[in-house]
Amino acid sequence: MPQNFKPVTVGISGGSASGKTTLAAALAEALKEFSPVILHQDYYFRDWSEYPPEEREKVITANHPDAVRWEALLGHIRQLIARQPIKTPPEGTRAFARGDAPATIQPSDLVIVEGHLILWDAALRDLMDVKLFVDVEPHERVLRRLLRDVAQRGGDLEGAVAWYRRDVIPNFPVYTEPCKAYADIVVPFLDDNPVALQTLVAGLRDRIGNQHASIQPEM
Protein backbone atom coordinates (compact mmCIF):
# COMPACT_ATOMS: atom_id res chain seq x y z
CA MET A 1 0.00 0.00 0.00
CA PRO A 2 1.51 3.39 -0.94
CA GLN A 3 2.49 5.74 1.87
CA ASN A 4 1.27 9.03 0.39
CA PHE A 5 -2.27 9.06 1.77
CA LYS A 6 -3.39 10.66 5.02
CA PRO A 7 -3.31 8.24 7.97
CA VAL A 8 -6.58 7.52 9.76
CA THR A 9 -6.49 8.97 13.27
CA VAL A 10 -8.65 7.53 16.05
CA GLY A 11 -9.22 9.11 19.47
CA ILE A 12 -10.34 6.97 22.42
CA SER A 13 -11.57 8.76 25.53
CA GLY A 14 -13.53 7.80 28.65
CA GLY A 15 -13.23 7.87 32.41
CA SER A 16 -10.33 6.52 34.42
CA ALA A 17 -10.21 2.68 34.25
CA SER A 18 -12.97 2.50 31.64
CA GLY A 19 -10.93 0.32 29.27
CA LYS A 20 -9.40 2.86 26.88
CA THR A 21 -5.98 1.23 26.79
CA THR A 22 -7.54 -2.22 26.41
CA LEU A 23 -9.65 -1.08 23.46
CA ALA A 24 -6.69 0.69 21.83
CA ALA A 25 -4.58 -2.47 22.12
CA ALA A 26 -7.39 -4.64 20.76
CA LEU A 27 -7.85 -2.36 17.74
CA ALA A 28 -4.11 -2.30 17.10
CA GLU A 29 -3.89 -6.09 17.27
CA ALA A 30 -6.89 -6.60 14.97
CA LEU A 31 -5.53 -4.07 12.46
CA LYS A 32 -1.85 -4.97 12.74
CA GLU A 33 -1.49 -5.19 8.96
CA PHE A 34 -1.47 -1.36 9.03
CA SER A 35 1.31 -1.20 11.67
CA PRO A 36 -0.76 1.00 14.04
CA VAL A 37 0.81 3.57 16.33
CA ILE A 38 -0.69 4.13 19.79
CA LEU A 39 -0.05 7.41 21.62
CA HIS A 40 -0.98 7.35 25.31
CA GLN A 41 -2.03 10.71 26.72
CA ASP A 42 -0.42 9.74 30.04
CA TYR A 43 3.03 9.88 28.41
CA TYR A 44 2.40 13.58 27.80
CA PHE A 45 1.65 14.49 31.41
CA ARG A 46 3.73 17.49 32.45
CA ASP A 47 6.37 17.11 35.17
CA TRP A 48 5.35 20.27 37.12
CA SER A 49 9.06 21.04 37.56
CA GLU A 50 8.38 24.78 37.45
CA TYR A 51 6.92 24.49 40.94
CA PRO A 52 9.04 23.94 44.08
CA PRO A 53 8.30 20.59 45.78
CA GLU A 54 6.15 22.07 48.55
CA GLU A 55 3.89 23.85 46.02
CA ARG A 56 3.92 20.98 43.53
CA GLU A 57 1.94 18.70 45.81
CA LYS A 58 -0.83 21.28 46.03
CA VAL A 59 -1.26 21.88 42.29
CA ILE A 60 -0.37 18.55 40.70
CA THR A 61 -3.24 16.85 38.88
CA ALA A 62 -3.81 14.11 36.33
CA ASN A 63 -7.47 14.85 35.62
CA HIS A 64 -7.47 18.55 34.75
CA PRO A 65 -6.43 19.73 31.26
CA ASP A 66 -3.49 21.57 32.83
CA ALA A 67 -1.90 18.15 33.37
CA VAL A 68 -1.20 17.57 29.67
CA ARG A 69 1.59 18.99 27.51
CA TRP A 70 -0.84 19.74 24.70
CA GLU A 71 1.71 21.39 22.42
CA ALA A 72 3.87 18.26 22.49
CA LEU A 73 0.94 15.88 21.95
CA LEU A 74 -0.56 17.96 19.15
CA GLY A 75 2.84 18.39 17.54
CA HIS A 76 3.49 14.65 17.52
CA ILE A 77 0.09 13.83 16.04
CA ARG A 78 0.53 16.45 13.31
CA GLN A 79 3.95 14.99 12.48
CA LEU A 80 2.54 11.48 12.21
CA ILE A 81 -0.32 12.72 10.02
CA ALA A 82 2.33 14.37 7.81
CA ARG A 83 4.11 10.99 7.61
CA GLN A 84 7.04 12.18 9.71
CA PRO A 85 8.62 10.15 12.54
CA ILE A 86 8.46 11.41 16.12
CA LYS A 87 10.86 11.06 19.04
CA THR A 88 9.62 10.28 22.54
CA PRO A 89 9.43 11.12 25.35
CA PRO A 90 9.09 14.89 24.89
CA GLU A 91 10.90 17.21 27.30
CA GLY A 92 8.86 18.64 30.15
CA THR A 93 6.89 15.44 30.67
CA ARG A 94 6.91 13.02 33.60
CA ALA A 95 8.12 10.31 31.21
CA PHE A 96 11.15 12.42 30.27
CA ALA A 97 11.86 13.36 33.89
CA ARG A 98 11.86 9.74 35.08
CA GLY A 99 14.27 8.79 32.31
CA ASP A 100 12.12 6.67 30.02
CA ALA A 101 14.24 5.31 27.18
CA PRO A 102 14.21 7.52 24.05
CA ALA A 103 12.39 6.01 21.11
CA THR A 104 11.64 6.91 17.51
CA ILE A 105 8.10 6.14 16.32
CA GLN A 106 7.67 5.76 12.60
CA PRO A 107 4.59 6.96 10.66
CA SER A 108 1.70 4.56 10.19
CA ASP A 109 -1.53 4.17 8.25
CA LEU A 110 -3.41 4.15 11.58
CA VAL A 111 -2.75 6.46 14.54
CA ILE A 112 -4.60 5.70 17.78
CA VAL A 113 -4.61 8.27 20.59
CA GLU A 114 -6.05 7.29 23.96
CA GLY A 115 -6.62 9.26 27.14
CA HIS A 116 -9.35 10.57 29.41
CA LEU A 117 -8.81 14.22 28.39
CA ILE A 118 -8.18 14.00 24.65
CA LEU A 119 -11.69 15.03 23.57
CA TRP A 120 -11.56 18.12 25.77
CA ASP A 121 -9.11 19.92 23.46
CA ALA A 122 -10.78 21.33 20.35
CA ALA A 123 -7.58 21.40 18.30
CA LEU A 124 -6.99 17.74 19.07
CA ARG A 125 -10.58 16.81 18.22
CA ASP A 126 -10.10 18.45 14.83
CA LEU A 127 -7.24 16.04 14.08
CA MET A 128 -9.36 12.97 14.78
CA ASP A 129 -11.11 11.11 11.97
CA VAL A 130 -12.98 8.90 14.44
CA LYS A 131 -13.75 9.83 18.06
CA LEU A 132 -14.72 7.09 20.54
CA PHE A 133 -15.90 7.35 24.14
CA VAL A 134 -15.63 4.22 26.29
CA ASP A 135 -18.59 4.22 28.67
CA VAL A 136 -18.57 2.35 31.99
CA GLU A 137 -20.70 3.15 35.03
CA PRO A 138 -18.83 4.94 37.85
CA HIS A 139 -18.88 2.22 40.52
CA GLU A 140 -17.22 -0.28 38.19
CA ARG A 141 -14.57 2.24 37.18
CA VAL A 142 -13.75 3.00 40.82
CA LEU A 143 -13.37 -0.71 41.63
CA ARG A 144 -11.17 -1.27 38.57
CA ARG A 145 -9.01 1.71 39.44
CA LEU A 146 -8.47 0.65 43.04
CA LEU A 147 -7.64 -2.90 41.97
CA ARG A 148 -5.18 -1.56 39.41
CA ASP A 149 -3.50 0.96 41.71
CA VAL A 150 -3.28 -1.32 44.75
CA ALA A 151 -3.26 -4.96 43.61
CA GLN A 152 -1.45 -4.54 40.28
CA ARG A 153 0.84 -1.59 41.01
CA GLY A 154 1.46 -2.19 44.69
CA GLY A 155 0.05 1.15 45.80
CA ASP A 156 -1.41 2.06 49.16
CA LEU A 157 -5.21 1.78 49.41
CA GLU A 158 -5.56 4.88 51.56
CA GLY A 159 -3.42 6.89 49.20
CA ALA A 160 -5.32 5.65 46.14
CA VAL A 161 -8.65 6.58 47.72
CA ALA A 162 -7.37 10.00 48.81
CA TRP A 163 -6.12 10.75 45.28
CA TYR A 164 -9.41 9.63 43.75
CA ARG A 165 -11.33 11.93 46.07
CA ARG A 166 -8.99 14.87 45.54
CA ASP A 167 -8.41 14.70 41.78
CA VAL A 168 -10.77 12.34 39.95
CA ILE A 169 -14.12 13.07 41.61
CA PRO A 170 -14.09 16.88 41.13
CA ASN A 171 -12.58 16.86 37.63
CA PHE A 172 -14.23 13.93 35.83
CA PRO A 173 -17.73 15.51 35.60
CA VAL A 174 -16.23 18.79 34.36
CA TYR A 175 -13.50 17.78 31.91
CA THR A 176 -14.08 14.17 30.83
CA GLU A 177 -17.72 13.13 31.07
CA PRO A 178 -19.17 16.09 29.10
CA CYS A 179 -16.85 15.23 26.20
CA LYS A 180 -18.98 12.19 25.48
CA ALA A 181 -21.03 14.66 23.42
CA TYR A 182 -18.09 15.02 21.00
CA ALA A 183 -17.78 11.28 20.35
CA ASP A 184 -18.83 9.76 17.05
CA ILE A 185 -19.42 6.43 18.79
CA VAL A 186 -20.01 5.60 22.47
CA VAL A 187 -18.72 2.11 23.29
CA PRO A 188 -20.18 0.27 26.32
CA PHE A 189 -17.27 -1.61 27.92
CA LEU A 190 -18.50 -3.10 31.19
CA ASP A 191 -17.32 -6.48 29.88
CA ASP A 192 -15.55 -7.44 26.68
CA ASN A 193 -17.60 -6.14 23.77
CA PRO A 194 -16.67 -8.29 20.74
CA VAL A 195 -19.54 -6.95 18.62
CA ALA A 196 -18.38 -3.35 19.09
CA LEU A 197 -14.76 -4.34 18.43
CA GLN A 198 -15.67 -6.23 15.26
CA THR A 199 -17.75 -3.28 14.03
CA LEU A 200 -14.99 -0.76 14.75
CA VAL A 201 -12.34 -2.92 13.09
CA ALA A 202 -14.45 -3.33 9.95
CA GLY A 203 -15.19 0.38 9.79
CA LEU A 204 -11.58 1.42 10.26
CA ARG A 205 -10.31 -1.11 7.74
CA ASP A 206 -12.83 0.24 5.23
CA ARG A 207 -11.86 3.83 6.01
CA ILE A 208 -8.16 3.15 5.51
CA GLY A 209 -8.99 1.39 2.24
CA ASN A 210 -10.98 4.42 1.09
CA GLN A 211 -8.07 6.72 1.95
CA HIS A 212 -5.82 4.52 -0.15
CA ALA A 213 -8.28 4.41 -3.03
CA SER A 214 -8.62 8.19 -3.06
CA ILE A 215 -5.00 8.57 -4.16
CA GLN A 216 -4.75 8.94 -7.90
CA PRO A 217 -1.84 7.06 -9.51
CA GLU A 218 0.93 9.30 -10.78
CA MET A 219 1.17 9.62 -14.54
How would you describe this structure to a colleague?
By secondary structure, the chain is α/β, with parallel strands linked by helices. The chain has one domain (8-213): Rossmann fold (3-Layer(aba) Sandwich), CATH 3.40.50. Helices cover 43% and strands 15% of the residues. It is built from 8 helices and 7 strands. It has helices at residues 20-30, 53-59, 70-81, 94-97, 122-127, 138-152, 157-176, 194-213, and strands at 8-14, 37-40, 86-88, 103-105, 110-114, 130-135, 185-188. The protein has a 5-stranded parallel sheet, sandwiched between helices. A two-stranded antiparallel sheet has the order 3-4. Helix 6 runs antiparallel to helix 7 (157-176). The mean pLDDT is 93.
Number of strands: 7
- Kindly state the mean pLDDT as a whole number? 93
Strand residues, percent = 5-15%
Q: What kind of sheet is the major sheet? A: 5 strands, parallel
What's the quick description here?
With 219 residues, the protein is α/β, with parallel strands linked by helices.
Topology (elements, then pairings):
Layout: E1 8-14, H1 20-30, E2 37-40, H2 53-59, H3 70-81, E3 86-88, H4 94-97, E4 103-105, E5 110-114, H5 122-127, E6 130-135, H6 138-152, H7 157-176, E7 185-188, H8 194-213
Parallel strand pairs: 1-5, 1-6, 2-5, 6-7
Antiparallel strand pairs: 3-4
Helix pairs in contact: 6-7
